[in-house]
Structure formats: structure tokens, C-alpha cells
Amino acid sequence: MDHSHARKLAAELAGTTILCLFGISAAVSVVAAGNESSGLLIVALAHGLALAVGIYAFGGVSGAHFNPTVTIALAVSGRLSWREVPGYVTAQLFGGVLAAYLASLIHGQQAIDAGLGATSFGAGVSVTQAVVAEALGAFLLVTAVFALAVSPSAPRGVHGLGIGLALATQILAFGPVAGASVNLARTFGPDVVLTFGGGAVSWAQLPVYIVAPVFGGVLAAGLYSAVNALSRVRESVASSSS
Q: What is the pLDDT of residue 155?
């Protein structure tokens, strides 16, 4: 492994840890404080702002994916080599586990009792509902990534806040459905730590958090690429006829 690739993986590990640690800790704090009325907003803002900080800190090193969904969407669209995907995803999953472990150290048994902010289906939520919610949430997030970080015409300097806002928005919209994870690292980390810490884990639901976000993210990448390709064709035709 060359030095450049190692730096990218370290950045993905650090950024994913930041995102998941502050998101998990916010969820644990909300449960511990019994602050149900504004809890969803607090959790959404914590995730969104932590993601923004991570993007500004590590975007120049690794691209600041911090999420297997984003990594796979970029690879499918040809903007990331598939050879880099396994390393990125592994670093992200380790970051999720490390974040959950750190949250359990910081908050103690209170974190385990609060479920470590683990994502799971809401009461009465079907698999179909969870799949649609996770896919649409990932669609919004990846659309923001492509529009604000990938597009050459994106406004400078706002990508971190814009992408963080997209993450927060889908949490506000879909959080009560299935946790609005849209990120396997965010789901996998708490599940692993809870398993060893004696907490309740819904491992049977994990396939939804693997498949649905990737589907939504790839759909967003494909649609974005198709729309932009069509736009370039129209511009080319217009310039040829003038």
C-alpha cells in the first residue's frame, strides 16, 4: 500500500468516526435526557454538522465519503476506481465500530441502555417501508454529493454544509421509519458493540441497511450522470447550429 492510499484510508477512518461518534452520542444523550420533543432535530443536526466538519477536514485527502453508499455510487459513476472500494468500505466500517465503542466508553452503561443510537425499524414499520425510506434518504444524500462536490459548476465552499444539511434533512423526514441511517457504517458499528456489550440487536434487519441505501445512491448517481450527459449533448447541438 502506497503512502497516498494509506492517507486516504486514515482520512476515511477518522471522518467516519467523527460522523458516527457525534451522531451516536447525540442519540444517547437525547434518550438519557428524556428529550423526546426535540430529540429528532438534535440528532439530525448532530449528524449533519459532524459530517460537514469531516468534509472540510478530510475532503482534500480522501474525498470525504465516510459512507459505503457514497463510495459505491462514485465507483459506479466512474469517479472512483473499484480497486479502492474495498479499502474505503473497510475503513468506514472500522470507523463506525470505533465510534460506537468510544460512545460506550464516554456514556458508560447509559449508552448500552439507550441502544447506542442503533438504527432499527420503528414500531409497526414493514420491510417495504424501511427499504423505501432508506433508499430515498440515500438518494437525497448522494444527489447532494454530486451536485455540491462532484459537479464542476458547484459553488465553492458550501459543499460541506450543503451535504450535511441533506443528511440532516433526510433524518428529519425518515428518522422515525427506520433510523434514516443511509450508511452501513452508522448501522454496523452500534450493532457490533451492542452485541458484545449485552444490548439488543436487530441483526435480521441489517440486509435492509446494506441494500436499500446502495440502491438509492446508485440510482441518484445514474440519474445525475444521465441528466448532465443530456445537458452536454444539448449544449453541443446548440453550439454546432450557431
A: 87
pLDDT tens readout for residues 154-192: 888 999 999 999 999 999 999 999 999 999 999 999 999
- Residues 6 or more apart from 148 whose CB is under 8 A from it? 154, 155, 158, 159, 162, 163
Which architecture does CATH list for 3-233?
A: Up-down Bundle (1.20)
- Mean pLDDT (the chain) is 94
Query: In which residue are the cell numbers 466538519 written?
Result: 53
Rounded to a whole number of angstroms, the CA Rg of the chain reads: 18
Of 23, 16, 63, 55, the closest CA to residue 39 belongs to 23
The label of the residue with cell 476515511 reads 12
What is the DSSP secondary structure assignment for residue 36, as one 8-state letter?
Answer: -
**Residue 138 above 90 pLDDT?**
yes
Average pLDDT over residues 81-110: 98
Give the separation between CA 28 and CA 42, rounded to whole angstroms. 11
Q: Quote the CA–CA distance of 64 and 185 in Å, as a whole number.
A: 14
Centre a 10 Å sphere on the Cβ of residue 239 and count the other Cβ atoms it contains: 8
String of DSSP letters for 192-221: HHHHHHT----GGGHHHHHHHHHHHHHHHH
**Is 213:65 a contact under the CB 8 Å cutoff?**
no
Domain assignments of the chain as residue spans, ordered by start:
3-233
pLDDT at position 2 over 90: no
Residues 6+ apart with CB under 8 A from 34: none
